[in-house]
Amino acid sequence: MNSMDFKSNDPIAWCPGCGDFGILNALKKALAVLGRAPKDILMVSGIGQAAKLPHYVKANCFNGLHGRSLPPAVAAKITNRDLTVIVTTGDGDCYGEGGNHFIHNIRRNVDITVIVHDNQIYGLTKGQASPTTELGYETKVQVNGVVLEPFHPLETAIALGCGFVARGFSTDSDHLAALILEGIKHKGFSLIDVLQPCVSFNKKNTHEWYAKRVYKLDYKAYDRSNKIMAYEKASEWGDKIPIGVIYQTARDTYEERRGLNKKPKLVDEDISNIDISGILKDFK
Question: Torsions phi, psi of 247, nearest 5?
Answer without folding.
Answer: -150, 140
